[in-house]
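Exercise 7. Given the components listed, write out the predicted structure of the assembled complex. Treat all entries as one system.
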Amino acid sequence: MIEGIFHYEFLQNAFLTGILIGIVAPLLGVFIVVRRLSLIADALSHVTLAGIAASLLIERKFTMLAGLNPLYLGMVFSVGGALFIEKLRGVYKHYQELAIPIILSSGIGLGVIFISLANGFNTDLFSYLFGSVSAVSRTDLWVIFIISIVVISVIIMLYKELFLLSFDEEHAKASGIAAKSIHFIFIVMVALVIAASMRIVGILLVSSLMTLPVAASIRIAKGFKQTIFFSILFGEISVLGGLFSAYYLDLAPGGTIVMISVLILVLTIFYNKFTSAIGGEKQSERI
Amino acid sequence: MILIIKSERVQIMQSIIEIKHLFYRYEKDTVLENINMTIPDGSFLAIVGPNGSGKSTLLKLILGLLKPQKGDIFLFGQEINKFKDWQKIGYVSQKANSFNTGFPATVFEVVASGLTKKLGLFKSFKKEHSNKVNETLDAVGMKGFSNRNIGELSGGQQQRVFIARALVSEPSLLILDEPTVGVDAENVNSFYQMLGELNKNREITLLLVTHDIGTISDKVSHVACLNKHLHFHGETAEFEQLNRDGLSKVYGHDVHLLTHHHEHGGVVK
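Answer.
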């Protein structure tokens, strides 16, 4: 496969995209997990599905639009869904988590309608659901590259504010941080990264790349920066290992990437048990 | 019987907070009615009152987290809507409500986050800031804990870390909402002692909300009794005198409220 990367453009695309997603998805994931918003990623990925389905439907009905990259409409839907979640969280102040099932089911509902209107899709849709090693185009790679640059720079610039907002929202507001605007920027970035990641991991599994590496990292890391570091490390191992095994075993990469993340998670839990048994340190209170 | 005593010193000293004819209600319930008070520079004020007396609401109004229906609040002589110097005010909330103990952050990172607003957008952390963080941790007696995860500490230790977070930006006013909730009984005393030292040595004005007047009355300089109305606001000595005469004078009703637990300083419900 290593030689393949030099020979085949689709493999280069898949790997470079994988490396980028392995950084940005867990990076945003850390902030999502500590704010207990893990399910938002799930809700948004299902909205993205509606966007992809709409795009495939348009492609089928209007042949002149056949060149339209489903990624774009997926992103539009995802960002729209993110804004709608924020709106709903304002409406249901005391049931903020309600926004997630509302958006999630609306996403699937719309998606299913679009799929039915098109009398079902072929393997194309399958690759969107579970990811694919061969589906990433050069354009996809460029779009994802730009998104990654933007996300990484914004996180570096707003790191202090995002940390404070995640750790203690009330305190952040009391000290005069522009909580609303920063949260808005953050949720839009999450929506973009979800849409960008689905080519590789697939819509149904995209949220796992934002949560599983973080879940493993929290078990062993000291402090927030270290949590980010380990999350990205675990994310990269999962994505690259997943792509390799998917290519060799001819599997959908979504499945292999997620199973490697799960394996890492299990290993960290055992490692944690092992070290606390030896060191006798009080680790039990952590998560 | 409602008694409002104005201390003469209040008028002379410069005021940090001034509240005039303040009203606040949640939907139909009026929580605060016609509150007038002046908090002088350098004082250590405890606002006491039973649950639901509007103590926390008053703090939220002062912090600008809620907007009053009627009345004015002046912070450092400036109208609250125009007030921009929020880093002059440090705030320690009721820890239990706003803190996830599984949060993967070190004590150092938590205290450093107190500099966020002071540093401003897009500015990064430098060596001098980390020195400041370490020095502040020392001041609250938490030196040597900086690399521990915040969730591994006891309730009292965590509360000290949150005070360090509020102090690190060098505020002139520190506001604490029920700071001893979750602190072991034996540590409450040393905790208040630390606050007293901050008040004296660093000349920080302290505003504290509590229903734990027993332990605190010998530590604070001023007491305000709140129960929808401000029933008493004055120096601690006056308060104690009234207290001996019977609390009905302080509150107008509800006599056992504070005396009951006076000796062992328990938490009054």
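Discussion: Chain A has one domain: 2-277. The radius of gyration of chain A is 19 Å.
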